[in-house]
Design goal:
The chain has about 80 residues and is mainly alpha-helical. It has helices at about 10-40, 45-75. Helices cover about 80% and strands about 0% of the residues.
């Protein structure tokens, strides 16, 4: 019979706080970077949105990798 797992709330809140902080920074950079590159090269609005979307997908992947590393270092279950 499997043991029920308990959530370590202190670790969970720490990891969640880090993820919120980093997500804000990563998506801010992704959106502004896409806007800046398309604007600098004068590619138009469609390419601005395309670059923003691509950079946001890259940012989401980075956040997913960070989440996996964070819970490996700071386990949220006991």
């Amino acid at each position: 019979m499997a043991r029920p797992t308990r959530i370590n709330w202190s670790s969970f809140i720490t990891v969640l706080g880090v993820m919120i902080l980093v997500a804000t920074e990563v998506f801010g950079v992704a959106l502004s970077g896409g806007w800046a590159i398309a604007g600098l090269l004068e590619l138009g609005t469609a390419f601005e949105y395309l670059f923003m979307g691509l950079f946001s997908l890259l940012g989401a992947y980075i956040l997913f990798a960070l989440w996996r590393k964070a819970i490996a270092i700071e386990p949220i279950t006991e």
